[in-house]
Amino acid sequence: MDFGIGSIEEPSYTSSSLTPPQKAAAILVAMGKPAAGRLLKFFKQDELKALIEAARMLKTIPQGELEKIIAEFEDEFAEGAGLMDSAATMDKILSESLSPEEVDAIMNPGSATGEADAPPPVWPAIEALEPARVGAFLAAEHPQTAALVLTNLAPGAAANVLLTLPKALRGDVAKRMVTIGTVKPAALRIVENQLRTRLLGDTGAKSPAIGHARVANVLNELDKSQLDEILSDMESAGFSDVKAIKAQLFSFEDLPMLDQRSRLTLFDGMSSEIVTLALRGADKAIVEAVLTAVGARARRMIEAELAADPGNVQQAAVIRARREIASTAIRMGKSGQITMPAAKEAA
Questions:
Q1: pLDDT at residue 260, as a whole number
Q2: In this structure, is residue 12 part of a structural domain?
Q3: Are residues 1 and 73 in contact, defined by beta-carbon separation less than 8 angstroms?
Q4: What domain range is 84 assigned to?
Q5: Are residue 128 and residue 198 in the same domain, yes or no?
Q6: Torsion-angle region of 79 (φ positive above 0: left; ψ -120 to 50: alpha; else: beta)
Q7: Mean per-residue pLDDT of the chain
Q8: Cβ distance 334 to 127 under 8 Å?
């Protein structure tokens, strides 16, 4: 039997003339709100729309015909009366399983509802959580849901979460990540809303990880001297988690702490002008750490520029160049492209 979502035909009342979407809608209604609600989140947007439209065209399905439909699906359902007013029942299932905005997004994918006022994506907040926490949450979900979540995380964060999954589940999720297709924005918003409520809803009270990441993002915008001063002020104020924040910090002066592979990756393709500007007045250890990570031709050019009269180079421009390099390193560290010093020490 074909269970695909196809075209919708005129309402009919026998199992032989019902379309696949009408049969699927009939069984969902027969299952009741709790079970049907859990299944709805696994349908694609166009499938949900077809199911809703099919249900709204159904009126009464006699018990005998319903049993024939169930037999086609080769599964067992509890006995009950024939379906009465399927449209109203399906609407009730949807209203208790999805928010009005989510239903509207499914039925009217082109509408502007929720687009402008939608909250920011949840993915950066999930990446800031402990991988074991995210893994425990996804282990209780359908493997397809877990795969969808991991494909939306930065590669480094996704890899760390994948490693925490049970071995029996890990391979299945990884396989689904390979074959997962493009998810419609409206459907992705539904998943994000569920994650925001169920995974991130109480993280502010239970875990300081997001707060640490928030403060680290601010401090990473400061010069080394300013950063150290604020960290000292936080310690003086009695803040006990300074070490956790330091683990997420990285400045231009930390470049020698990167391993050679990470430095090569960081400076691969980076503008020689930015590198030269950033190295103006830098310590010899930093200059050498950077020059050993660029090609021979680029090194000769940079050394020649550094030896020449710099002219009217403003210190503000040097600071901006250094901050750009540090920001790039932080971004590449979060995505798993390079190994940050703190992560290396913890390994």
A1: 94
A2: no
A3: yes
A4: 20-97
A5: yes
A6: beta
A7: 75
A8: yes
CB 155 within 8 A of CB 335: yes
CB 2 within 8 A of CB 20: yes
Tell me the DSSP string of 140-207: TS-HHHHHHHHHTS-HHHHHHHHHHS-HHHHHHHHHHHHH--PPPHHHHHHHHHHHHHHTSTTHHHH-
For residue 261, being part of any structural domain is answered with: yes
Same domain, 93 and 127: no
169 φ, ψ to 5°? -100, -30
Q: What does the pLDDT look like over 97-150, one tens digit per residue?
A: 566 665 665 555 554 444 445 566 788 888 888 888 899 999 988 888 888 899
* 204 close to 210: Cβ distance less than 8 angstroms: yes
Of 115-124, 147-156, 182-191, least confident by mean pLDDT is 115-124
Q: Are 51 and 87 in contact (CB under 8 A)?
A: no
**Is residue 274 very low, low, confident or very high in pLDDT (cuts 50, 70, 90)?**
very high
> Which amino acid is it at 165?
L
The residue ranking higher by pLDDT, 242 or 345, is 242
- Name the one residue in this structure whose structure tokens are 């421009």: 317
Residue length of the chain = 347
> What is the count of structural domains for the chain?
3
Residues 127 and 91 in one domain: no
User: Rounded distance, CA 324 to CA 318, Å?
Assistant: 10
Reply yes or no on whether the pLDDT at 66 is more than 60: yes
Q: What type of residue is 137? A: F
CB atoms within 10 A of CB 240: 8
* Per-residue model confidence as pLDDT tens digits over 26-40: 767 766 666 666 666
For residue 78, pLDDT over 50 is answered with: no
CA distances from 323 to 289, 333, 343 (A): 17, 15, 20
How much is the average pLDDT of 221-227? 77
Which CATH number do you get for residue 37? 1.10.220
